[in-house]
Amino acid sequence: MKQWLALSDRELMTVRLQDLELDVEGECLLECLAVVRGELGARGFGFEPHVWLSDEWFCPDGVPGFAIPFYLAHQRLQALERRQMEEVEGGTRRSFLRLVRHETGHAIDNAYRLRSRERRVELFGSSEIEYPDSYAPHPYSRKFVRYLELGYAQCHPDDDFAETFAVWLDPASRWRQRYAGWPALAKLVYMDELMGEQVKARPKVANRREPDALSTLSVTLGEHYRERRKKHKVNFARRYDRDLCRVFGTRGRAPGAAFLHRHRTSLRSEVAQGTGTRRYIVDRVLADWIARARALKLRLYRSEKRTRAEVVTLLRLHVASYMRQEHYRITV
């Protein structure tokens, strides 16, 4: 039994990541990884990316494998992740499989050195383009496949490639029908041809490097989460004042901050689902709303039903503004 299991959450936050003593054989990770490996095998691939635990999802340049965040290796840590970040990325079987397919696309890109191919660059763009600190996806664009949240394919040419690969690999995607008439279909057709070539070839890169493996990370869980929350924090609070004053008033029967706090969970879920945005991003905006509503002493002066409907509309706009303006790390 791992000693940290007996600790309280407060005590757990003092434990170093390297002392969690986790591996990818925990929980249901092996079963889900086997599903994707089976999908590769069904396509004719002998290649399988190697996998290790780290502090987030990522596939390093030049490595034919990828890292999985440590919290997915134990239910206790998933619960802590949810309390700290409002959600668990990869916490459901469906989302985990999708993320693994995406990262497998990066790993195959590395293993077969596909980035410099002329047609790949023509369709997806150059891998030499620097990764952005932030990006504003166009939700209705048909130039990109839609697989992971946040319009991930629009982040960078390499993510466009990995997302297209994931759709191609997913046996449930029905991509020829789903993307018929879309410009993105040309990328999928090319992916089908390109992968048909690779199954007959040996990988050009076969190292088993594991950058930033969990066993090397000396930060504590508390330090880890403080840094993550800092990266995702937004402080546009005063920019919200004018709009909040349109929804709430200075006279009424109940405090506006209390109303927002009471509906926080349902608002977070509804807006996150409707916009394809991470729940923790919506929650950061809501936290600033609540602080400003309290500071301005705003009050509820109309019906709760009407106020909530207006709050949802306004919250979607403010979250979109956050996405355009706030720089945050994009997990790849």
Structure description:
- There is one protein chain.
- By secondary structure, this protein is mainly alpha-helical.
- The protein has helices spanning 9-12, 29-42, 75-85, 93-111, 118-124, 157-169, 175-178, 184-198, 221-232, 241-247, 256-262, 264-275, 279-295, 304-325, and strands at 50-54, 65-69, 254-255, 299-300.
- It folds into 2 domains: 3-216, no CATH class; 233-325, no CATH class.
- The chain has 14 helices and 4 strands.
- The chain has a two-stranded parallel sheet with strand order 1-2. A two-stranded antiparallel ribbon has the order 3-4.
- It starts with 8 loop residues before the first helix and ends in a 7-residue tail after the last helix.
**Secondary structure category:** mainly alpha
Strand arrangement, major sheet: 1-2
- Counting DSSP H or I runs of 4 or more residues, the number of helices is 14
Shape: globular
Which H/E pattern describes the elements? HHEEHHHHHHHHEHHHEH
The number of E-state strands comes to 4
Q: Low-confidence parts, pLDDT < 50 over ≥5 residues?
A: 326-332
Q: Could you tell me how far the N terminus lies from the C terminus, measured between alpha carbons in angstroms?
A: 33 Å
- Our estimate of the beta-strand percent is under 5%
The whole-angstrom Rg is: 22 Å
Give a short account of the largest sheet.
Answer: 2 strands, parallel
Tally of structural domains? 2
- The helicity comes to 40-55%
Mean pLDDT: 89
